[in-house]
Amino acid sequence: MLELICTEGGVRLDKYIEIDGFSRSRIQKLIDDGCVLVNGEVAKARDKVKDGDVIEIDVPEAEPLDAQPENIPLDIVYEDDQLLVINKPQGMVVHPGAGNHSGTLVNALLYHCGESLSGIGGVARPGIVHRIDKETSGLLLVAKTDLAHNSLSEQIKEKTAAREYICLTDGNMTILKGKIDAPIGRHPAIRTKMAVTAKNSKNAVTHFEVKEQLNGASLVECKLETGRTHQIRVHLAYIGFPLLGDNVYGAKTNSYGLTGQALHAYRIGFNHPVTGERMEFTAEPPQYFTELIQKLK
């Protein structure tokens, strides 16, 4: 049972609930199936929550998994009987989906962990607490138990987990430190993209600091206060500084031979689900990233 305390009243229940690794349709199905209670009562997807409401989510046992184990090397930064911290390479998809039935992080985890993965993520996403894009490299959490999954998901939602990224922007940012507070939702015209929009969106906050000015680019540190899809990419493009290599939110071509956005999840911090110990891990950016910095100096 996952319990949330509402801190953002006035939002529809199906829009308010966010569990990393769950699609919007999966959350709506949980509500429709009576698996979500608000203050002890069965609720409807369209019901609006109020500040202080207690939301209880009973996640059913995961269905049998279709994805197959694959012997794919993993860069494991930390592992115990509750969780793993993985340094995902650029180019690896996190979980199976349309056009990506093999070669994903989930396929690799199934081989490494066997059945020791939490089932809360659903059939295609065992153990997946949160995601990073295919072309984003860096650290992410994997839960081996439902207890760990519930705890880590709650820490992300309550902003007690820390997620920090470094990236390279196209252009020299003129404001060296600040906060981008702009809601993100599905792009109104291009459904494969996200956008800053007031319609059907959720609040999104990114803190940024320029660490170094380069030749036509900035090396920027970003800290997530929320975790919306493509958040850093959308927010930096919104203020006029898309990421180098991001052909979705920035230039369609680049002169650096990049195959995706220059974005790396370099630090993650959380409280251990069982011991409560504060844990923090860092991962240096991949070779292409550091070589690009040198080229830009």
Topology of this protein?
Elements: E1 2-5, H1 13-16, H2 24-32, E2 36-38, E3 41-42, E4 54-57, E5 76-79, E6 83-88, H3 105-113, E7 137-143, H4 146-157, E8 162-170, E9 177-181, E10 184-186, E11 194-196, E12 201-202, E13 205-213, E14 217-224, H5 231-238, E15 263-271, E16 278-282, H6 287-296
Parallel strand pairs: 7-15
Antiparallel strand pairs: 1-4, 2-3, 2-4, 5-6, 6-7, 8-14, 8-15, 9-13, 10-11, 10-12, 13-14, 15-16
Describe the structure.
A hairpin with a 2-residue loop joins strand 2 and strand 3 (41-42). The strands form 3 sheets. Strands 5, 6, 7, 8, 9, 13, 14, 15 and 16 form a 9-stranded mixed β-sheet that branches. Helices cover 18% and strands 28% of the residues. It starts with a strand and ends with a helix. It has 297 residues and is of the alpha+beta class. It contains 6 helices and 16 strands. It folds into 3 domains: 2-57, Roll (Structural Genomics Hypothetical 15.5 Kd Protein In mrcA-pckA Intergenic Region, Chain A), CATH 3.10.290; 61-158, Pseudouridine synthase; 163-264 and 291-296, Pseudouridine synthase. The protein has helices spanning 13-16, 24-32, 105-113, 146-157, 231-238, 287-296, and strands spanning 2-5, 36-38, 41-42, 54-57, 76-79, 83-88, 137-143, 162-170, 177-181, 184-186, 194-196, 201-202, 205-213, 217-224, 263-271, 278-282.
